[in-house]
């Protein structure tokens, strides 16, 4: 399915104006350093901490082999996206099989392969497809680590994997504690002291993975940060005056790549200072009108879990999108969410491996609900959300089967013998 999605746009430029990774990859190839992707003029560009390094390096490598913005480079990156998505399908099968059985594994893999939120970004020159695969790999590795035996190299490898995925995109980091605690509690239930050694090993592997990039950022910006420093800019985009008017108004008015005045300010202040100033504005807007911020967060939460992307629509549009394709996507994602709710209500989540993994996904979604959201931000969480939806469907099937059996069972009539 991923290669079918790819076939419609072979070698085409990334849709929707998503050019940051293309710009950063070209800068890295030409200057040997990751410059700000928000500045079009390379002579005025400054070193950047806005993008994680892994995908920028992949884009730069493709440009080195095939040429900057060439058809060959775009095709190579899109094929890599398709391969990553295909691998994610395989990982979803193993995750669902381990949690729910072989039949559910096949069902989850098929649903994921045709999930538009999971495979619909294959043509996009962005980290979405690789990050989705990385998330699936982390989920699968957490389940595998929960099985005995788990020797000390396995814990360190798992931590290194988490760090490596963070260098691709750090959004899942909020859910890392749950991914680590599940195998720890599986091996050492209630034995908190016994968890110390494997926990230290896991954290050590994670630190080893992110340490070079962290030291680079500290040396260049004299500031400790976790992988990327763009959170305050994202927060501002979510609370700026145009936030209720839809994403087009937000990006046209506030995003440096689409607004000349904002780009001039970024060049004048430098990227770090520019992002800091937007953070100051964001916190001021939140303090001045916390009710508005809460309303926007609630709207983004609905966006994230239904796929309607209300915050990307103009005012007065209504809840359901007018586009048939967008409507079908919204119905698909809303149905998926409702099935997850069915499983949580019927089966609970606290003591289940699936509950731990779904909890990690829920925690990661909070970042987008507080800043700004889009359907592609949900894509990396689709591996576990798809499995959760299949678990809900299995539970509904069990309910329907039990109800059917009760309906066809005719109770025996009581005997009248011995009655007066």
Distance between the termini: 73 Å
Largest sheet: none
Total helical elements: 19
How would you sum up the global shape?
globular
Q: What is the total domain count?
A: 1
Query: Taking all residues together, what is the mean pLDDT?
Result: 85
Order of helices and strands: HHHHHHHHHHHHHHHHHHH
Which structural class is indicated by helix and strand composition? mainly alpha
Task: Supply Rg.
Answer: 24 Å
Query: Beta-strand percentage?
Result: under 5%
Report the strand count: 0
- Taking pLDDT < 50 over at least 5 consecutive residues as the criterion, the unreliable ranges are 5-9
Detailed description of the structure:
The chain has one domain. It starts with a helix and ends in a 12-residue tail after the last helix. The protein contains 19 helices and no strands. By secondary structure, the protein is mainly alpha-helical.
Please write out the topology.
Elements: H1 2-7, H2 20-31, H3 53-66, H4 71-100, H5 102-113, H6 116-119, H7 128-145, H8 152-168, H9 176-187, H10 196-221, H11 231-239, H12 247-254, H13 260-269, H14 271-288, H15 290-306, H16 324-347, H17 353-370, H18 375-378, H19 382-408
Helix pairs in contact: 2-3, 3-4, 4-5, 4-7, 4-19, 5-19, 7-8, 7-9, 8-10, 9-17, 11-14, 13-14, 14-15, 15-17, 16-19, 17-19
Question: How would you summarize this macromolecular structure in one to three sentences?
Answer:
With 420 residues, this protein is an all-alpha fold. The protein is built from 19 helices and no strands. It has one domain.
